[in-house]
């Protein structure tokens, strides 16, 4: 194996991360990969300047009709039509990105022979695939484009002709994208399955004292303060849901402490001011997306977090962490928005990381009849890292409190992953494995 510090810290290599402001997910993945680089590397981060991406992402996330329309064009024949025209539009609107990269190369102080571009958004990836050959010829540099897919969702738009490597979280997604490539007659593209990249900061092991703290939090006989994290999405989705969830759960048990990590914007302002009035709520807040991601990691660094409620977006892949790790909170998943979030839930269910649909229904039935789930699910509980919660926020809070009282979360701390799980898909080492794979391209 090559030496990663040596390969990534040479003066003639320039590493550039590109991301688009379509929510915080792409930025979180960028940050995870950035943090996993050897310390001697000197990467740059280049964000898209088109703020319409953020506006469109929020609109299709919160508007019921537009959300349904977006989910419709993410499936079957509509997906093929949408992908064809959207890909064509992206690849024909590359002038701004070309100018950015051209200026970057001209102004970079150290002469470079190779530019390694890491793209965590398909839009920029398609545009880069078009301009990289032109830039390589004009500037006399070699450009390598690596695309990291940010959900386990084999949507055709993630197939980027001209990419040198596409990294996906599962073999299913790899096969689906490769099948689509062949159907469309594109040249072969290297597609590699690696575990989803997570921040090294979340992978740190808890001290024995910290893990004991987590055990006490989830033990209903201890009456200990229970830290529950709530990251607010970049599109500010579900604010009313979280408001009612916090209010209901706080009334059921005053030991719950809610830790909000959010961007301060016109969309979140009213919600943040309302939450600031609650004694049980701590707020981690910033106007800058980068700093919001750092604040979220800081939250986990400063506090032993035992539970987290979130949409099943990129945050869902924290189920790959062990409860004894800093980011290994018990995950509570609210209703999915967009095909990619349904696909993420499917990934977790198929690998036994959360209850499948039949088990979830059985759990809800047991809750309604106020029976104990432990006798029925004891062995399965210890292989689960999360659970979905009802779409009604008050019912969700009551369901979570019932699971807490029934020692459901306490048993989940005794996590034992299933032996048959593939290390290519289920591991907390995705960020490290990513750079090991990329190093092979540079040899």
Give a description of the structure:
The protein is an alpha/beta fold and 443 residues long. The chain is 48% helix and 14% strand. Helix 3 (52-62) crosses helix 4, helix 5 (76-92) runs parallel beside helix 7 and helix 6 packs across helix 7 (122-139). The longest helix has 18 residues, at 122-139. The radius of gyration is 22 Å and the shape is globular. It starts with a helix and ends with a helix. Residues 55-61 have low confidence and may be disordered.
Write the layout of secondary structure elements.
Blueprint: H1 4-8, E1 13-19, H2 25-36, E2 44-47, H3 52-62, H4 64-72, H5 76-92, H6 95-107, E3 114-119, H7 122-139, E4 142-148, E5 165-168, H8 171-184, E6 191-193, H9 200-203, H10 208-217, E7 226-231, H11 239-252, E8 256-263, H12 269-275, E9 281-286, H13 289-302, E10 307-310, E11 330-333, H14 339-350, H15 357-368, H16 374-381, E12 386-388, H17 393-405, H18 408-412, H19 430-442
Biggest pleated sheet: 6 strands, parallel
Number of domains: 2
Helix content: 40-55%
User: Alpha-carbon distance between the termini?
Assistant: 10 Å
CATH architecture of the largest domain: 3-Layer(aba) Sandwich
Q: Major sheet: order of its strands?
A: 2-1-3-4-5-6
CATH fold-level label of the largest domain: Rossmann fold
Q: Which CATH C-level class of the largest domain is it? A: Alpha Beta
Unreliable stretches covering 5 or more consecutive residues: 55-61
In short, what is this structure?
By secondary structure, this protein is an alpha/beta fold. The chain has helices at 4-8, 25-36, 52-62, 64-72, 76-92, 95-107, 122-139, 171-184, 200-203, 208-217, 239-252, 269-275, 289-302, 339-350, 357-368, 374-381, 393-405, 408-412, 430-442, and strands at 13-19, 44-47, 114-119, 142-148, 165-168, 191-193, 226-231, 256-263, 281-286, 307-310, 330-333, 386-388.
């Amino acid at each position: 194996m090559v030496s990663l510090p040596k390969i990534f810290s040479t003066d003639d290599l320039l590493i550039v991360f590109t991301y688009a402001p379509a929510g915080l997910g792409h930025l979180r993945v960028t940050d995870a990969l950035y943090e996993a680089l050897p310390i001697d590397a000197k990467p740059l981060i280049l964000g898209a300047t088109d703020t319409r991406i953020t506006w469109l992402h929020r609109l299709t996330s919160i508007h019921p009709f537009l959300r349904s329309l977006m989910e419709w064009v993410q499936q079957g024949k509509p997906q093929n039509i949408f992908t064809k025209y959207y890909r064509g539009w992206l690849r024909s609107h590359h002038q701004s990105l070309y100018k950015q990269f051209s200026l970057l190369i001209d102004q970079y102080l150290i002469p470079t022979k190779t530019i390694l571009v890491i793209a965590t958004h398909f839009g920029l990836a398609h545009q880069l695939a078009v301009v990289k050959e032109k830039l390589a010829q004009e500037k006399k540099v070699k450009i390598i484009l690596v695309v990291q897919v940010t959900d386990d969702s084999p949507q055709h738009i993630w197939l980027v002709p001209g990419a040198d490597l596409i990294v996906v979280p599962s073999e299913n997604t790899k096969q689906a994208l490769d099948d689509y490539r062949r159907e469309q007659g594109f040249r072969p593209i290297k597609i590699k399955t690696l575990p989803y990249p997570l921040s090294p900061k979340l992978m740190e092991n808890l001290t024995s004292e910290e893990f004991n703290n987590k055990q006490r939090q989830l033990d209903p006989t201890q009456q200990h303060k229970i830290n529950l994290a709530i990251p607010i999405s970049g599109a500010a989705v579900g604010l009313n849901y979280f408001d009612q969830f916090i209010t209901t759960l706080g009334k059921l048990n005053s030991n719950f402490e809610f830790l909000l990590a959010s961007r301060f914007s016109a969309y979140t302002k009213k919600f943040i001011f309302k939450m600031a009035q609650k004694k049980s709520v701590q707020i981690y807040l910033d106007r800058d997306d980068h700093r919001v991601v750092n604040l979220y990691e800081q939250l986990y660094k400063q506090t032993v977090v035992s539970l987290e409620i979130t949409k099943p977006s990129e945050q869902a892949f924290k189920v790959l962490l062990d409860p004894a790790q800093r980011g290994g909170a018990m995950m509570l998943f609210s209703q999915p928005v967009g095909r990619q979030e349904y696909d993420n839930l499917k990934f977790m269910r198929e690998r036994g990381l959360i209850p499948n649909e039949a088990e979830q229904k059985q759990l809800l039935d047991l809750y309604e009849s106020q029976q104990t789930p432990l006798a029925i699910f004891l062995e399965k509980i210890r292989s689960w890292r999360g659970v979905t919660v009802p779409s009604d926020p008050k019912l969700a809070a009551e369901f979570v409190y019932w699971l807490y009282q029934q020692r459901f979360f306490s048993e989940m701390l005794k996590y034992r992953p299933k032996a048959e799980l593939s290390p290519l898909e289920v591991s907390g080492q995705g960020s490290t494995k990513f750079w090991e794979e990329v190093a092979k391209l540079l040899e």
